[in-house]
Specification:
- The N and C termini lie far apart (68 Å).
- Helix 3 crosses helix 5 (85-95), helix 6 packs antiparallel against helix 7 (131-143) and helix 6 crosses helix 8.
- This protein has helices at 5-11, 32-43, 47-69, 73-79, 85-95, 100-117, 131-143, 155-172, 174-184, 187-220.
- The chain has 221 residues and is mainly α.
Length: 221
């Protein structure tokens, strides 16, 4: 399925160098789960509720991607102390599996949720005391060429678009991660790695022998 140029900026890691995957693999099945959670965000009434639902949805997909790659992820979540949303985002960032703009979108959602959670007097996105969050929203709106009816100053529309990137777009990479995890754990992959290791070890030994011969020849001259 070919995406429109606008949607490519949502999904693809344009200009991305560090991430393993720059674009999601094509999938045949329809993800009704993603659509359902996105609709919950769309139906959130006030912006405090929107930030909360968006954060819960984003964390759900961060968990999903990490679980697809880390076999013992469920145990890690249960046993690790202070395995917070913030730590999960940092772990996903460190793995460098998905484009960085998705990680930044998730972080914006987390920071916005925290801002509402820690100040009962904040009623809207425009009321956020930390103007850096608003700046990050607008920067991403411009960077990813996001299109909304209200433009860059419609913070609710901007936030919802960023929530879409942090949830639905992130989820589109889950199939990539699942396939990668399956491939690296096959017997054939392990054999290939062992063969590669043997070849590198042989090359290293050959280079040492060549160096020793060169030094011996220099001493005899």
């Amino acid at each position: 399925m070919k995406l429109s140029e606008v949607m490519e900026w949502y999904f693809y890691g344009k200009g991305e160098e560090a991430a393993l995957f720059k674009r999601p693999f094509p999938v045949q099945e329809s993800n009704t789960d993603a659509k359902g959670l996105l609709q919950k965000s769309a139906k959130a009434g006030d912006e405090r509720s929107l930030s909360l639902v968006s954060a819960l949805t984003t964390e759900y997909y961060v968990d999903k991607v990490l679980r697809s790659f880390i076999p013992g992820y469920n145990s890690l979540c249960k046993e690790a102390d202070n395995f917070t949303f913030s730590v999960k985002i940092k772990l996903l960032k460190a793995l460098k599996l998905v484009p960085s703009h998705i990680i930044r979108a998730a972080e914006i959602i987390r920071q916005t949720r925290n801002a509402f959670a820690h100040d009962i007097n904040i009623d809207s996105l425009e009321d956020l005391d930390d103007k850096k969050i608003i700046s990050k929203m607008k920067d991403m709106y411009i960077e990813r060429k996001i299109k909304t009816d209200g433009g860059v100053d419609d913070l609710r529309g901007v936030f919802f678009a960023i929530s879409y990137i942090a949830s639905t777009v992130l989820d589109s990479y889950c199939k990539n991660v699942e396939m990668l995890n399956a491939v690296i754990r096959t017997a054939d992959t392990l054999k290939d790695l062992e063969k590669l290791s043997e070849e590198k070890a042989k090359k290293f030994i050959d280079e040492l022998r060549e160096l020793a011969l060169t030094e011996e020849e220099d001493e005899n001259q």
